From TrEMBL:
Protein name (record): TGF-beta receptor/activin receptor, type I/II domain-containing protein
Keyword Transmembrane tagged: yes
Transmembrane region(s): 12-31, 341-357
Keyword terms: Membrane, Receptor, Transmembrane, Transmembrane helix
């Protein structure tokens, strides 16, 4: 009997490829946990540090921010799941005196080690409010503006917008990205824009350039007093919970959860802070702020679906974006968007492999 080694080799090659793809997909679901430092404190010099507590997560973080007292910094260490930063290491966090680091490894968040990255500088308009006579400028890595308040200025480090991945790809294919956020039934929607060319955040110029385009292409839908606008009509729209509530009880419900808004993505955010209270039965008190709403975007390619979870022993911040009606009702529902995406991806790959093996 003659053995066809070519057919046998092709068969085993397909099996190996199959196993590699399966292991790659499973790795997306499971990342071995790391021990991270978890602490916070004030520092009076550049080399300040803290190493008191610990937590476990896929990634660790450390950040350093100035406080109101000149020359004093607050350093915070903790854990983060599904970080929005696309590149590991330390970098500026929007402002030149804010540094944020992400790493993977046991107690890798020991200290801040920032490396200078060569970036193109741009000149931006810098104003605290919408003032046509403001002629202040600054030099940074990218520019930003807020259409509601008119505030504008310079950004440093990777380009940053809420609910987007923070990395160079955000402004790689286009030089301007905008996002409109609706949070709470009483708050007006706010439009945030970032860009990376000289004086691109001059709101008077950008208003004149975009008014004629937007007046013909903007879609508006009104739901419970909220106006939702999308600059591109090909993105689907979803109905989302619109609520903003602060309480000391995690089980508390609010009537504002009946409010709705319509947008390209639904959003969910929660901020928990535990503080000491001598009058409390347990000696501590928990303050919870929960925000649900919707966003509309000019570019959806860098939206981070699912939930980003950043926490220490006394504080937790969760931020989610999802794409189905009322998916932001709670954190569990908002986070299933990512699982559905990976399940669909896995199914497509599996079907292709089965077809090739036949």
């Amino acid at each position: 009997m003659k053995i066809n080694f070519y057919i046998i080799s092709i068969y085993f090659f397909k099996k190996i490829i199959f196993l590699l793809l399966i292991s790659t997909i499973l790795f997306e679901f499971y990342v071995d946990g790391n021990q991270c430092y978890s602490c916070s404190g004030l520092c009076h010099n550049e080399k300040c540090n803290c190493q008191m507590g610990s937590c476990e997560s896929d990634y660790c973080y450390i950040e350093r921010r100035p406080v109101d007292v000149p020359g004093v910094f607050r350093i915070t260490k903790g854990c983060v799941k599904r970080p929005s930063r696309t590149q590991a290491g330390c970098d500026y966090d929007t402002l030149p005196d804010h540094i944020y680091c992400v790493c993977s490894g046991n107690f890798c968040n020991e200290a801040v080690h920032i490396k200078q990255i060569l970036r193109k500088n741009v000149t931006c308009k810098k104003c605290n409010e919408k003032d046509p006579n403001c002629d202040n400028v600054c030099v940074g890595h990218w520019c930003h503006e807020d259409s509601l308040t008119g505030a504008s200025g310079c950004g440093y480090g990777p380009p940053t917008l809420p609910y987007f991945y923070k990395g160079p790809h955000l402004l790689f294919h286009r030089n301007r990205v905008c996002l409109t956020i609706a949070r709470g039934p009483l708050a007006k929607p706010r439009k945030h824009c970032i860009c990376n060319s000289n004086m691109c955040n001059d709101f008077m110029k950008t208003y004149q350039l975009t008014y004629s385009y937007n007046s013909q292409n903007v879609k508006s839908k009104i739901q419970n007093g909220q106006v939702s606008r999308s600059l591109f009509n090909n993105l689907p729209l979803y109905q989302c919970v619109l609520c903003d509530v602060t309480s000391h009880d995690s089980k508390m419900t609010s009537n504002c959860k009946q409010n709705r808004c319509i947008g390209n993505f639904c959003t969910y955010g929660i901020h928990r802070v535990i503080s000491h209270d001598g009058n409390s039965l347990h000696g501590t008190i928990q303050r919870i702020t929960e925000r649900q709403g919707c966003i509309n975007v000019t570019d959806h390619s860098q939206i981070q679906l699912g939930c980003n979870d950043k926490y220490t022993s006394v504080e937790q911040k969760i931020s989610c974006a999802c794409t189905s009606d009322l998916c932001n009702i709670d954190v569990a529902t908002a986070n299933t968007t990512t699982l559905k995406y990976y399940y669909s991806y896995f199914s497509i790959i599996l079907l292709i492999i089965v077809y090739l093996i036949k």
